[in-house]
Design a protein that fits this description.
Mean pLDDT: 81
Strand content: under 5%
Largest sheet: none
Number of helices: 12
Order of helices and strands: HHHHHHHHHHHH
Radius of gyration: 17 Å
Length: 257
């Protein structure tokens, strides 16, 4: 069966989705926040709810490639403290999707992304020095981890937009580039795989969404390879600026649609 006919998309729209799939791979191995651009493209070409079901398997493919690339740089104490809060956020996101329409989904996620970017910029401007990853063991660090964890779980369930939220958390916690990428790689592989049963139950993943995924997954691999090549050529300051800029861009796009 022709995937483009099944989804009633044109050649140009398929090309846009292929570019978004390329960016998924790039975001997983280079600039995490770049996948908000992919999210925006998918939501523009496909119905907003349906787009989340198509995008999730592509994200998982990118997560596997990122784990293979940066597995030695993960910071597991941070991951273990985040997961309970993220699980609560995923449950809240599932309940939200049961009644929310496309407009409510876009507005909620867009507002959260912009809020997270603003908070991170404010913290970085006012802090005398950035805390290291071990800051999660303090009381304030635990509160921050739980807050970001719930928001990350909620946004990743509702619109696969947890990347920017967790990017803002990892930047605010003082992670350097490789630690950032290694920790986020394992985080999103585990979280995205755990979302699959919820997405299937909500009807977001079905036969035709997987058929479109099969046509797009080949574009994720070259994106990941491009990201692996580029990440060592991006300095820390530029890396952080790109992550924040991609977050703001994604949030503004969702609010304006």
């Amino acid at each position: 069966m022709n995937t483009m006919t099944l989804w009633h998309i044109t050649g140009w729209q398929f090309a846009a989705l292929a570019l978004a799939a390329l960016l998924v791979g790039f975001s997983k191995t280079a600039v995490s926040g770049a996948n908000t651009v992919s999210l925006a493209i998918f939501a523009a070409v496909l119905p907003a709810r349906a787009s989340t079901g198509v995008l999730l398997p592509l994200l998982i493919a990118g997560d596997v490639l990122a784990v293979l690339t940066y597995r030695r740089h993960a910071h597991w104490p941070t991951l273990l403290r985040l997961f309970p809060a993220v699980a609560a956020g995923v449950v809240l996101g599932t309940l939200f999707l049961k009644w929310a329409g496309d407009g409510a989904v876009r507005t909620s996620i867009g507002a959260i992304l912009l809020l997270m970017a603003a908070v991170t910029l404010w913290r970085r401007r006012t802090a005398e020095s950035a805390p290291g990853p071990d800051a999660v063991v303090t009381r304030s660090g635990r509160i921050k981890a739980r807050s970001y964890g719930v928001l990350g779980g909620f946004t990743t369930m509702v619109a696969n937009a947890g990347g920017p939220v967790m990017s803002m958390y990892l930047l605010s916690a003082g992670f350097r580039k490789l630690g950032f990428l290694g920790t986020s790689a394992f985080f999103f592989l585990i979280v995205n795989v755990s979302k699959v049963p919820f997405s299937v139950g909500l009807g977001l993943i079905d036969g035709r969404s997987l058929l479109l995924d099969a046509a797009l997954v080949a574009f994720v691999v070259p994106g990941a390879l491009l990201g692996k090549w580029a990440v060592h050529r991006i300095n820390q300051r530029l890396f952080e600026q790109l992550v924040i800029a991609a977050t703001v861009l994604g949030g503004v796009h969702l609010l304006l649609r």
